[in-house]
Hints:
67% of the residues lie in helices and 9% in strands. It has 415 residues and is α+β, with helices and mostly antiparallel strands. This is diguanylate cyclase. Its EC number is 2.7.7.65.
Amino acid sequence: MGTENLILLLVEAGFYFVFMVGILHLRHQIGIGVFIAALGVMHFLETYLAAVFYIELPFGVISPGSSVLFSGKLMMILLLYVKEDAAVVRAPIYGLLAGNFLTVGLGFFLRHHQTIGAVPGRIADLAFIDEMGWLMLWGTTLLYIDALAIILLYERLGRVFKKSTAMRFFVSGVVVLTFDQIGFFAALHFLNGAPVEVFWGGWIAKMMAACAYAVLITIYLSYSRISAIPVSPRPISDIFADLTFRERYEDLLDRSGRDALTGVYDRSRLEFEAPRLLSAMLAAGKPMALMIIDADHFKDVNDRFGHLAGDGVLKETAACLQRALRGTDRVFRFGGEEFVVICEDVSPQAGAERAEALRRTVETEIRRPDGVPVTVSIGIANSYNDGTTLNALLSAADARLYAAKNAGRNRVIAS
């Protein structure tokens, strides 16, 4: 009986692999959604079999739902990453997690219905739905962790097994499926009282599955004329950011607080970021410079050439400031024709020199519509001398800006 079960298990693994790889291979013809939907549809069967359906093999008791179907799903997710990228593979990962949260939520509401026996001899087993819902939720949470881990480990192993894609798949599968077996057995033992034999038999089966799927994937990639997948040149942290949508969050954060006209940060972003930057500099014992930059005679540009021309001068000035500063410096539009520049770890003397360089650059590069150079006046403050709060630095820089304008404009005043 054990040998017959083993043969059937291998046939099931082969059938699963051929079917799933077939629709993955045809994803450009039939759409990637078919592959993702197939992964999702299988999840209930995987969890049900893992909970109640066991067979005996020569080396122990196992469930095909866990050893064949779940292991196969995890390897399919890794193969999808290899064939596409992190931005594509995160769709089924988060879709499965969201779907199972929905299952548990709906199960909660279903328990409050008053049911009737419309079909003779059939009664809804809501306790079973509850149990399956929580197992599916736990299994999907594990799958989420497993999927992130197997992709990141696969990339990390690329630095060890540079020419062997099979070893990268196999070792990744062994490590992550071992973790998964520990996590899922804990839930089975807690909810269903699964014996320890199920853990060891399932673990051995998953190790065999990792080996079998690694071989099958290598054969498929060879058929696809991909003998060795190159190691991604991207840092692991970037891949993790893609998988967890962090790059979307960072992009949204970067887009928020932007001035619509000039593209530099706006005043709200200044009020949010500057205190944190200043605190960090003070904690490190380093000075921070703050400049207020005002475009000279800007009202004259608007009056003589119109507001569109004035907007153009502001955009060019902002772009010029960004080009002239270090990558760690920040430019904010403070209001009207005024900009604030923050420079970390800059002494009062170095800050004054940098402000003077900005003044000269603007005068050299920016022209009004009539060809007259655009000039700026700059007031500069430094946490070394002028205060330890944003308001103190702004007040000091603003006073020096007005002193620069009263002294004839197109100049820097730092003290």
